[in-house]
Amino acid sequence: MALTQAQQAELTEAQAARHETRRATVPALEAMLFTPIPVLDHGFVRVVDYMGDDGAVVQSARVSYGRGTKAANEDRGLIRYLMRHRHSTPFEMCEIKYHVKLPIFVARQWIRHRTANVNEYSARYSVMDREFYIPAPEQLAAQSASNRQGRGDVLQGAEAEEVLRLLREDAARNYDHYAWMLNEDEAGNVQDESRSGLARELARMNLTLNAYTQWYWKTDLHNLLHFLSLRADAHAQYEIRVYAEAMLKIVQAWVPHSYEAFADYRMGAVTLSAQMLAIVKRMLAGEGVTQETSGLSKREWRELMETLGRAA
Amino acid sequence: MALTQAQQAELTEAQAARHETRRATVPALEAMLFTPIPVLDHGFVRVVDYMGDDGAVVQSARVSYGRGTKAANEDRGLIRYLMRHRHSTPFEMCEIKYHVKLPIFVARQWIRHRTANVNEYSARYSVMDREFYIPAPEQLAAQSASNRQGRGDVLQGAEAEEVLRLLREDAARNYDHYAWMLNEDEAGNVQDESRSGLARELARMNLTLNAYTQWYWKTDLHNLLHFLSLRADAHAQYEIRVYAEAMLKIVQAWVPHSYEAFADYRMGAVTLSAQMLAIVKRMLAGEGVTQETSGLSKREWRELMETLGRAA
Amino acid sequence: MALTQAQQAELTEAQAARHETRRATVPALEAMLFTPIPVLDHGFVRVVDYMGDDGAVVQSARVSYGRGTKAANEDRGLIRYLMRHRHSTPFEMCEIKYHVKLPIFVARQWIRHRTANVNEYSARYSVMDREFYIPAPEQLAAQSASNRQGRGDVLQGAEAEEVLRLLREDAARNYDHYAWMLNEDEAGNVQDESRSGLARELARMNLTLNAYTQWYWKTDLHNLLHFLSLRADAHAQYEIRVYAEAMLKIVQAWVPHSYEAFADYRMGAVTLSAQMLAIVKRMLAGEGVTQETSGLSKREWRELMETLGRAA
Amino acid sequence: MALTQAQQAELTEAQAARHETRRATVPALEAMLFTPIPVLDHGFVRVVDYMGDDGAVVQSARVSYGRGTKAANEDRGLIRYLMRHRHSTPFEMCEIKYHVKLPIFVARQWIRHRTANVNEYSARYSVMDREFYIPAPEQLAAQSASNRQGRGDVLQGAEAEEVLRLLREDAARNYDHYAWMLNEDEAGNVQDESRSGLARELARMNLTLNAYTQWYWKTDLHNLLHFLSLRADAHAQYEIRVYAEAMLKIVQAWVPHSYEAFADYRMGAVTLSAQMLAIVKRMLAGEGVTQETSGLSKREWRELMETLGRAA
Predict the structure, then answer these.
(1) What residues contact residue D19 under an 8 Å CB cut-off, 6+ apart?
(2) Which chains border D (3 or more CB–CB pairs < 8 Å)?
(3) Is CB count within 10 Å lower at the N or C end of chain C?
(4) Is the CB of residue C263 less than 8 Å away from at least one CB of chain D?
(5) Contact A307 C264 (CB under 8 A)
């Protein structure tokens, strides 16, 4: 995440600025503005702007003229009620805008969330940075044996070394060839006057999927929490989960009541199917239910036992 | 648009508040915050919050670290370019939230624009205000003879008087019966202890479509401009157009460059079909084209002549 | 739900038509096409068209060239897995289009679901039907004492009779005045040559919220199920729930595996918060948890006890 | 676009199937079902399913019980009116689903259109095909000198050969390393028992952006036409434009009236800004307007002259 001097200067200037506003402000979030939070080896998340706070959720739920109640405790209770009963529209009244630097293969997962506004750095228009994601050794996992889309044990020894070498060399070589085909450097200076250079929109196809891109990404609090519930989840791929975790910390600073309700009623919550609920009732009534007597498939039985913290 | 004393006090308090922020602020819009702009006889539009400014459009188009350029003129040029070539995503990076009071039949048109966040006052939960829209006499138009969904001449004399009387009496009577069925007043006080009172979610069905409702409505600048291009248009129904016009003034204060580009390239622009363009070329080449030689239907020919400011 | 002779003739003709197609077809749903299912006193739901079936969900989840597997059992298992783990995109690959006749106050709730395509009958363009929803006596409920947006006991005796009389008379009178203001009948015949008649877009404001409107409503299976999970829920207002229930029967005929998975993992499922789950674990471990020792609010405790089928 | 024998067999079987339906069918589109249209060197577009036809647009615009009118000519006129006046909702009533094979860098542009349903082949779950897009020599263009995101002259001689060699070798080498890291072939057979193999979700990052992916993509006719108006446009990148052109031919077979109206009022239409329209009026009045007297920037003047087919 090496910012150029010019970029660093712009951020420093923005951080120093102070304006007067009548809008709701959140000091804890203001303190984080314009400060990139490092993610992975070259990526970051930084908050560029925001609108609203916990009070805006309350205000909107009541369609009131004021901002939340005097009694902060009532606000908290209402927010928890709204979250528990999935009243989503009041949470749509807060908005946040991030600037994110991320590997292309992560961007491709991320963009599947459609209810957001996005402006991505254009490789048709500009030259891409020479930066690629190379996993840390402890992230170099084998394919999971049990889960078709998960990770297993960490690779060791010669195989791990060889994988890292290939990832590094292929990304670097492909970038060098990209630059050669462009016939210009990152600043746009022509390299070899005797050549034409390939159009940027074509040359980019030689880059690898771990090349870094960046974008502005803006969404409302409800859709952000939905995104985070999927991407901060243990089943999400590690490389997107670390972004989600950084964003969760930002949410906690921004709207602490909403964050707390989200942690209790979403992230920490479990859903029991009709069949699972019936089994829990039987167990509470003292029955010794087994997989065989449960009516559940082995897979679902294992999931239920995990949920209840019991040996399958 | 009679606010209660409590509502007025809340707005006055919000207006007096001053916070410090590092975010982009727009003084001209700050001055309008928390001040309802009257629309129709009892409605209003007021800005509750906003995010971003013209600089945010520029910043996003460039996916840059800074905020627009030092040269305001370059920003204006870029914004005009983006608007002309329908690059919509940078305009999605600004967000605005309104509190609107409006007749239900207007709300039903408005809600058709789906790319917005809405929180409406709930008539399942609360008692509706005793306010209805009654058109001003000069708005009491006959059905247009030429346009199946437009207005013609203004009604006159006895017919106009009778229409106004009916609108007034029916709305008032239906509200009174609504209140009687609820068996509670607006403050929730039971009226007749011997009766149960009808559920609010049922009693509301007796209200007329000119009853006023209110909502928080939040959207991004691109979708707002799309909404305004349809609803501030001369073909839009007058009762929604006046809301769009009030919102256009707010846009002008908020993002003056974007507003100017919108006025030039959208509101004031015309679209010529392939056939119309061919006719304009023939006319510019000196040919005296008539409807008969144009190949256009009479209707399209009339539309083209109007566009070009010529007699059909 | 009195269809005119012309409407009935069109439906009969459509029902009789047989076309040949290579697309997936669902005989059980074909049998329901063009047959309005009555809902409330004058409303209906009817399927106009559909695309895809359970096999399309499977095909899309596998991004395969074929249609589902030969082994229907494998398809069922995959669909249940997708539903359980909230993989929503395969369910978006099926689409359905309904024609619905419904009271305006129901339409106003319904339209809040934004991820759908809608074409509503235009009261700017056409004259509305003379039909209003009047609740059946057993639906004439008082406001709930415990739930701000629910219903309590059914009204009895004189109060019930008076409410029904007011609803009937006000709707009829307002419609008659609407027709008088229009100065035309439903077929568009002018009534009184000496008057101009009020524009349709204005006259409609005199109608009551229980007047019937109609629309085409089209959405994908995932968003339809989300809609149904909210509107077929016991907390939804009765007048929209009966539409949701009619649509659920259609879903069952259309995509039986998806329907079954939805019934098990959504409609019949419960969500336990982090705190609730911890309490269930304590109870399973034999601890006698009470509201006081639970750490839950009284309200949440009551909700948990209801979920578990225990006395609070 | 080499389909395996198994894939070809599945398509042949699907093509041979005939079902009976009461739904609207379009024989010209039925004939295209399950037949991949080749695009680029290894890509394709094929229609998987569809819903509705031109009659469904008319039916919906009228919210009628029947299907279009008997008079096909009236349907055509109404569809042209709807397109000209941007009444978009009736066009949302038709739906189509494609199966598309396309290079990843094209998929990244395509996915920016958010109003669609997508199911992409998962590289977390499955092994990617060994297929990459290599431009045909006549598509190997230099960067445009005048347009920051366009193409200029075609590369020649040694530079062209070298570019093609690099693209070919880098893609192939990176794929081979991807396969080595996976330690399994496309059929999932382990290659070297002594190694663990890297997780698929990690190994994919070594692929190049011209690797082919595939997805199911489903959208409604209105949003499809919007997508096509941008991507079949001369300013769109060639590699996505060829997909759009293949899809346009499908639209023409599917909804011929809508297609014709789209060609006339969108693809072949031009938009004149308020300033441009004023200039056209001056020219029609006989004035010899020049860039200097036009008030337009040089760039906009050039655009106007091109539109009017005049020398700048």
Answers:
(1) C20, C21, C22, C23, C24, C25
(2) A, B, C
(3) C
(4) no
(5) no
- pLDDT 10s digits, C216-246: 999 999 999 999 999 999 989 999 999 999 9
The Cα–Cα gap between D234 and D303 comes to: 14
Which structural domains are found in chain C, ordered by start? Answer: 5-133+210-267 (3.30.1360.170), 274-308 (no CATH)
Residue C63 has pLDDT above 90, yes or no: no
> pLDDT class for C2, splitting at 50, 70, 90?
low
Phi, psi for A311 (deg, rounded to 5): -70, 135
Task: Enumerate the residues of chain B whose CB falls inside 8 A of the CB of residue D269.
Answer: 271-274, 276-277
Rounded CA separation B279/B303 (Å):
13
Bridge partners of B51, per DSSP, are: B95
DSSP string covering chain D: ----HHHHHHHHHHHH--EEESS---HHHHTTTT-PEEETTTEEEEEEEEE--HHHHHHHHHT-SSSS-S-HHHHHHHHHHHHHTT--GGGGG-EEEEEEEEEHHHHHHHTT--SSEEEEPPTTTSPPPS-B----GGG-EEEPSS-TTSEEEEP-HHHHHHHHHHHHHHHHHHHHHHHHHHTB-TT--BS-TT---B-HHHHGGGSBTTBEEEEEEEEEHHHHHHHHHHHSSTTS-HHHHHHHHHHHHHHHHH-HHHHHHHIIIIIT-EEE-HHHHHHHHHHHTT----HHHH---HHHHHHHHHHTT---
What was the ipTM of the complex prediction? Answer: 0.94
At A69, the pLDDT band (50, 70, 90 cuts) reads low
Q: Is the pLDDT at B226 greater than 90, yes or no?
A: yes
Q: In chain C, positions 43-102, which contact chain B (CB-CB < 8 Å)?
A: none
pLDDT value for B16: 86
